[in-house]
Amino acid sequence: MKVKMLCRDPNDYVRETKKDIFKMPRNYDSSLHPLEVPREYSRALNSTKLERVFAKPFLDSLDGHKDGVHALCKHPNQLSVLLSGACDGEIKIWNLADRRCLQTYIAHDGFVRGICMNSSATMFLSCGNDKIIKHWNYEPWTKVKNPDAIQTIVGKTFYTSIDHHFRKPVYATSGERVDVWDINHLEPIKSYSWGVDSHYSVKFSPVEHNILASSAADRSIILYDIRQSVPMRKVVLAMSSNQICWNPLEAMIFTVANEDHNLYTFDMRKLESPLQVHKDHVGAVMSLDYSPTGKEFVSASYDKTIRIFEAKNGHSREVYHTKRMQHVMAIKWSLDNKYIISGSDEMNIRLWKAQAAEKLGLMKPREREQLEYGEKLKDKFKYFPQIKTIKRHRHLPRPVYNAIKENRIIKASKQRKEANRRAHSKPGAVPYVSEKKKAIVDEQE
After folding, report:
1. Judging by beta carbons within 10 Å of its beta carbon (0-12, 13-18, 19+), is residue 314 exposed, middle or buried?
2. What is the dihedral of CA 197, 274, 415, 384, to 10 degrees?
3. Which of 81, 229, 415, 422 could bridge to 75 as Cys pair (CB 3.0-4.6 Å)?
């Protein structure tokens, strides 16, 4: 004779303490829950709406500069330390956690064009319009006001940017040519030029440490290997690029901020066409920076907005703006992947959240699980029309909104004109050119 018995483990339903919630047994068989999908859709819709309700990305502004902020530099080891350079030649060291200035340096006559720190964070370097490179001891705790530089190098030409090698005591500057310097020498150890009168930006790769990239005034992007005496490759775009940033995790990938309102992501092994064209800005893109994960980057534009792009997506997922913020000239993404720091023309440094609706501070496990569950549901139903519309909708400043509408009309007109020319020409006379290749003029090796 068979006897069926019920056997229950007390751990499955007995509370450990009186403050615990009661454990409820559930059967997850889908046939027993015919309304599961409609219920999940309603929860996903509510989560999407709540995300837009709680999307308050602006955290704080740091005021203290007397002119526009055009240069920012992150500390390589400390999350809360930031260096900023202004148009009046002043450099400040900030503690972001306390929202206060630690030290001020009267560094240059005129604009501070670039700031960088060495890998050990014992010193930082700056360059400006006064044709001077200065080395400074990193001592924010010192009580000496306006400390002097430990070394001053007077150059023959002006400098537009500076960047330090990630391993060696070597740094690079851009100006009328690209110079590579040893930290202990007063003359450059190597100089590169390729028929260009000036360079706007220079950047070392964080993965392939000896690879260097620069953007030049002849609308070109030039790649260098500091172990060689001549540049490697060069690609010419339709318009000039303001800044370059390398992907921190993918060795060959870099993105440039261009004057034609777009950003272009390239693979250095295949420069004849960009991997992706990132559109949405309506003004020249002045600066950009990758997140530590390499999956996203943030861009700052002359149209007074900040946009966050996914590295493999052509359109931005987020746009930040305020009524008082003017042309955004510098941008950085914090090393903990949580914050964005921007510097703009109206003398302020602003601190933003990387995820606009993210809750800061400690969360209980149940609250964290609920948010993760909501994220999964939003990802599951992200292509449904109502959820897609709510998630994508953003309020924009009126000038930006009108410029986007005007650009849309201009683009439709160009497409219509090209279609008419193709329809009234011989077959093949008006070829189809992809959007990616329209920006490339020439490639040289």
Report:
1. middle
2. -140
3. 81
CB of 203 closer than 8 Å to CB of 246: yes
Please report where in the chains the tokens 């990193």 appear, as a residue: 138
Distance between first and last Cα of the chain: 87
Residues in the chain: 445
In contact, 175 and 199? CB cutoff 8 Å: yes
Do residues 343 and 349 make contact, with C-beta atoms less than 8 angstroms apart? yes
93 is written with which tokens? 């060291």
**Gyration radius from the chain CA atoms:** 26
Contact 308, 354 (CB under 8 A): yes
Place of tokens 């439709």: 412
CB 263 within 8 A of CB 254: no
